[in-house]
Amino acid sequence: MILVTGGTGNVGANVVRELLDAGERVRILSRDPRGRSFPDGVEAVPGDLARPESLPAALSGVGQAFLMSPAFAGADGFLDAAQRAGLRHVVLLSSASVLSETPGFIGEQHQRLEQAVLDSGLPWTFVRPGAFMTNDLAWVPQIGNGAVVRGVYGNAAMAPVDPRDIAAVAVRALLDRRVGEAPVLTGPQSLTQIERVRIIAEAIGRPLRFEEVPPEQYREQMLHHGMLAPVIDQLIAGLAARDGKVADISPAVEEIAGRPAFTYAQWAAHRAAAFDPALV
């Protein structure tokens, strides 16, 4: 039995689907299983990483787990319960930012999670993606209201990765028992924000353009949308550092998943309806 936390999220839902396709028994941890629908064949159990007392029952009979710790909370209680339950392998969704000389808020939180897993003594795999392609869904409100995406450092390049590829690597880590590995994942292309907006425009069939705004204005905009100030500051600093540079590409997705990573254009076509509901 494999337990999946975050099983309805961008990565977790794909982990669940791939495990089911591989014929595995899958259990999802859910705060309220009665209020959600799950794929056929999934066992959904009540539990919450923030409530350690709910975890022993969820881990009963589980051999491996995919751990995604939302808001960086609850991992310690999960790992304690996992030790007592005799878990044989935990695959942690971490971040490539742990390797940065200046990891910032996000990287520091993931470093803490990785250290907690190491301290637990459980066999581990750390999956370390860079930027998610789905981060660009933050542009949906602007695209829905017009033809302009406003942001900072439009020529900053990243190699964002599709959550389907992150999930594929996590599943291979579980099924192939890739214990002690920590692959860094990227997409197959270095793309600026300007280029990504153009690709989305092609996917939805209407013109879009990127417009540069001052960092102070962008910061206030992100605060208004509920993003934490340390995360915004790290985002802006990261974009500034990448301005005019080419992003590094990792071959890990293809090497581990056994297929090419999805391109940004493939992801944009897959999620086109999210950017333009008229395409549904």
Describe the structure.
There is one protein chain. With 280 residues, the chain is of the alpha/beta class. It has a domain at 2-130 and 163-185 and 249-261: NAD(P)-binding Rossmann-like Domain (Rossmann fold). Helices cover 41% and strands 15% of the residues. It has a 7-stranded parallel β-sheet, sandwiched between helices. A two-stranded parallel sheet has the order 7-11. Strands 8-10 form a two-stranded antiparallel sheet. It is globular. The two termini are 36 Å apart. The model has no long low-confidence stretch (mean pLDDT 94).
Q: Point out poorly predicted stretches.
A: none
Numbering strands along the chain, what is their spatial order in the largest sheet? 3-2-1-4-5-6-9
By CATH, the architecture of the domain at 2-130 and 163-185 and 249-261 is named 3-Layer(aba) Sandwich
CATH-assigned homologous superfamily of the domain at 2-130 and 163-185 and 249-261? NAD(P)-binding Rossmann-like Domain
Report the major sheet: 7 strands, parallel
Topology pattern, helix = H, strand = E:
EHEEHEHEHEHEEHEEHEHHHHH
**Structural class assignment:** alpha/beta
List the helices and strands and how they pair.
Layout (H helix, E strand, L loop, with lengths): L1 E3 L7 H10 L4 E5 L11 E5 L8 H5 L4 E4 L7 H11 L3 E5 L10 H17 L3 E6 L10 H5 L3 E4 L5 E2 L4 H13 L8 E2 L5 E2 H12 L4 E4 L2 H10 L4 H14 L9 H6 L6 H7 L1 H4 L5
Parallel strand pairs: 1-2, 1-4, 2-3, 4-5, 5-6, 6-9, 7-11
Antiparallel strand pairs: 8-10
Helix pairs in contact: 1-6, 3-4, 7-11, 8-9
Main attributes of the structure:
two-stranded parallel ribbon, 280 residues, Rossmann fold, seven-stranded parallel sheet, alpha/beta, single chain
